[in-house]
Amino acid sequence: YYITGGASDREKFQKWAETLDKAIGNPLFHWSHLELQRYFGYHGVLGADTAEEVWNLCNEKLKQPEMSVRNLIRQSGVTLICTTDDPADDLKWHKVIAADDSFDVKVLPAWRPDKAMNLEKPEYPEYMKKLSEVSGIRIAEFADLKEALLKRMEFFAQMGCSVSDHALEYVMYAPAAEEKVNEIFKKRLNGESISREEEMIFKTAFMQFVGKEYHKKNWVMQIHYGCKRDNNAFMYEQLGPDTGYDCINNYAPSAQTADFLNSLIASNELPKTILYSLNPNDNEAIGTILGCFQGTEAAGKIQQGSAWWFNDHKTGMINQMTSLANLGLLGNFIGMLTDSRSFLSYTRHEYFRRILCNLIGGWVENGEYPDDEKSLKKIVEGISYNNAVRYFKFDL
Fold first, then answer.
1. pTM of the predicted model over 0.90
2. 295-307 pLDDT, tens per residue?
3. Kindly report the CA angle at 388 between 384 and 393, in degrees rounded to 5?
4. Cβ neighbours for 93, distance < 8 A, ≥ 6 positions apart
């Protein structure tokens, strides 16, 4: 009732404030107060007793012109935003923003082809019809799907896209002949069900295809994995997908991750790649995989992504960066990614930078690195901003 139900906004906010009172050690406590300080000028503590004060202050502040979405983005020092876009998207609003000289922050699309890959989903045949219409390619075989995706990639590239993103259960490697892949695809296109083994065969072929295309286009391949989604069937029926009932999946065979990357590098077609696992126990496995596939295209061509989702809290960030420092080069790290849809969530980058500086400062105080401001400045500015600009080759 007080979360997704019929309570008023004011009642929901009151319950949120009462919950925040108990959130000691939780990043939601830290984020909420950073947002209140940076955007609303409130330096008190939000809780049950102050909810009315904060509610009134924030609602009054939101009436002011500087609290527009564009001004919040400018105020946060943002230079570029990448959105998440399906291959069938028309990118209409990207065109509008690109043509608007009054907004100097770049907004670029990022390619997210999960719907084209997830052939086990009930809606897959219907999605293929939509992709056929948008691409102008009649999709009847796997080769047609690849042609349709290539056409859409070209369109995305014209709109400034240079980044892909994939949500996988894990990075699988189950190679098979093209004929077998096509047989599985046509079977699913006809509305037939497929086996788990067939699903993995198709997804392997799909990822190999797009990975090679990314290499040709100099796009970055991001892979997020390690999540088990929509666990509560009862609530799924009430609210649908992506409503807070996901958890960490601890099945992620690092051998298959390595074999998949190896299948691309064998023909020198491995793109710049960023690996994110939702399971913090995968940090060291990823750290060692990175070292096997580096190249000359970029410093830290194969990256471990920042602590993600359930891990982007203080401890998770410290563990991820410490592991990366132990096994690789923290100085080449491209830093924080915020996949929040909130326009106030840019404070999470500040949160990350504070944790980064505190971690490095501790090492310096312990005598584990020289107290050399010039070197430290280069490392911190690199991880906070410059490394990502160089890695993605953004023109800013």
1. yes
2. 999 999 999 999 9
3. 150
4. none
